[in-house]
Amino acid sequence: MRAEVLAVGTELLLGQITNSNAAWIGEQLAIAGIDCHHHTVVGDNHRRMVAAMRASLARSEAVIVSGGLGPTQDDITREAIAEVMNVGLVRDESIVERIRTMFASRGRDMPESNARQADVPEGSAVIEQKLGTAPGLICPVGNKVIYAVPGVPYEMEEMVTRAVLPDLQRRATEMGEEASTIRSRVLRTWGMSESALAEMVAPRVDALEGSGGATLAFLASGIEGIKVRITAKAADEESAISILDAEEQELRRLLGPAVFGVDEQGIEDVVGRLLSDRGWTVAVAESFTGGMVASRLVDVPGSSAWFRGGVVAYDSEVKHDLLDVRPGPVVCAEAAEAMAAGVSKLIGTNVGLATTGVAGPDSQDGVEPGTVFVGLCIDGATDSAQLQLPGDRARVRSLGTISALDVLRRRLQS
Amino acid sequence: MRAEVLAVGTELLLGQITNSNAAWIGEQLAIAGIDCHHHTVVGDNHRRMVAAMRASLARSEAVIVSGGLGPTQDDITREAIAEVMNVGLVRDESIVERIRTMFASRGRDMPESNARQADVPEGSAVIEQKLGTAPGLICPVGNKVIYAVPGVPYEMEEMVTRAVLPDLQRRATEMGEEASTIRSRVLRTWGMSESALAEMVAPRVDALEGSGGATLAFLASGIEGIKVRITAKAADEESAISILDAEEQELRRLLGPAVFGVDEQGIEDVVGRLLSDRGWTVAVAESFTGGMVASRLVDVPGSSAWFRGGVVAYDSEVKHDLLDVRPGPVVCAEAAEAMAAGVSKLIGTNVGLATTGVAGPDSQDGVEPGTVFVGLCIDGATDSAQLQLPGDRARVRSLGTISALDVLRRRLQS
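^ inputs. structure came back:
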């Protein structure tokens, strides 16, 4: 089974946005065991869209088209697919109603142009849109298929996961491809370089070589720590998952506390679980991270059970006045510990977590950019950690946020 | 003159890296006034690389191939181009020497595999490599051309800027095209749906139709508001920019306060500029946004001049105890205004900005998810706005953050 990705949008050709949709879909297809040999981008141009879909269908059994489903005149994916299918467009009144209701729920009238989003090529099936207005489409072309999904990433991801991948796998089985399942699991790590991880895992990689069991890969994408992906191919899900379980155990033994979570589990989710296990509450005091630590804790559903609040003490006076930090330097271990103690006292929690540091670009009071202190206060007892973080202002702030959460995570796990 | 971008690399198909090279090259081509109608990605596969180059050359006069010039066995761009040119590869000893010297300068011997990087399709010209080991190539195919550049972004960018774009523009002139430049500008908007914007701008789009002046497009990428892109093609940069200036003025007249910024300008940048223009300071009190508003303000370089800090009042008690919010419901206009007043008093600023609402997934005290109140306090005078936001918990929090900043932005601009 081969599938291709066709991203539609002149803004992609002009480089105003990067084609992250193709990367995401490509990764999902690989995990699902479906070959993908081409990614293509064309602009909002009917003739070129039609030609690109035909070229893809000549090479592959399926093409996933993302973008061009909006309400405006330059959104013409529906029309282009109809031409490839050699059918007309029919308006689906139930979709019009859905969109009308959606606008109404926001106290707005549906602009007439949105009705275009309810036009469906004859003979195609609709993928219900759960997050936005544009529905997706499953469009048969002979024994092949065109999937149309929105260009908005989170709408696209939800639709591909819920409808497109399952349909592709069903077709693969119908094509007589021996039903095999590929499952993967990602171990999330923090605090080790990729090469250090690779060295620790190397013997395991050799042991697995040609074993037909799991395979391992390192993913350094983004800044949320290095990921170790375990992939297992097996006849059925159950066997695949038991391979993953065994390998996860093996890797956790090798990597120890560097592993903080699995798959989509963020470090804030782990911290939240550890806190609620103890029935503890936390408050945060933030300087250079400016609310990012608090925001990540609030991201966790149910966080109100263990997160009470925090203080963004960006200006030094706020540190002194609200958090009882002694006059003097504010980027040091003493200040970090005072902030942690001050905020847990002010807000009334067992745990206080604090960040102070220099995000840059300029150094501050002779302290280099990237110098960061994390303060921790648990039931009155304070402690702190110093870190030197790389990168620009945004990177130092993000790395500092994760590092602060990791300091608390390791303490709660020890 | 039409050019296409062909990115080579299985890691792109697998989504292990996003195709930022195509975005960058696409932008450079647009600025140079060279049409680019297709971006393609293929893996490290000889047959598919050859087919992709032939398809590109059948549609366009030039194709820029990035990647596959490395020293390893799966770097086969040189071989594929030679097949398309129907010539053999000849080793350029001067390149071998350059690479050998380069390794020597780092006190290393050149691995023999690197000699492959000196293989050049007969009849092609070499683009000197100034940053890495792989040289680039200019490969004539009839009266058309294939450019080969490295996949490493900074090596690729240097080579495209220095050698590829000038060569393309020379060819365009030879083809009798008069020199032209394309410039574009993006107007950032908040508070209107794409279709509502489209309807307001429709008369302008019609007026411009075939005028040879600017063209307009809507970009709904991400959640940072709908963008209206103005693109102008003219003989030189100066004329292109004056077209953009005139059209921006026209659109601002049509769209009014919905336009908050231009190009990369974020709403927090605009708020920061407006505050420092007045010499005002701001503090924020956040409930469901949990620090996201503060974090975005801290993102702005130099924010310490006008942002002092804030309180994350996630737990209701924190709202009552720290911000003097009266006992009773906390998701209402009164609470939002009290939070804004309380935080500006607590931290000592002219302006207090506050958010309270229900992010979901569950409703709270009978209040539906998505219900949001933004409180504002300027020199003691309070005011508030109510919004109903769509989407899941993460989306409501992000939209609520931008909406809160927009409430302050509109007030400061009015």
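The longest strand of chain B covers residues 181-189. Chain B has three domains: 2-174, 181-262, 267-413.
thumbs up if we can close this ticket
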